[in-house]
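Query structure, 49 tokens:
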């Protein structure tokens, strides 16, 4: 395998990995919704206790 084809193969693999990473990150989707008002009540499900 010559170096030119190796470079092309590696560039293709980098593009594939970048696309996979972008899908995993989801463009910011999948994050928890913003809490508009924090409850003063302390519960086990309250992440800010």
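Result returned for the query:
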């Amino acid at each position: 395998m010559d170096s030119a084809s190796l470079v092309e193969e590696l560039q293709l693999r980098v593009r594939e990995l970048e696309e996979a990473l972008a899908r995993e990150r989801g463009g910011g989707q999948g994050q928890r919704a913003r809490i508009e008002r924090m409850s003063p009540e302390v519960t086990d499900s309250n992440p800010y206790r």
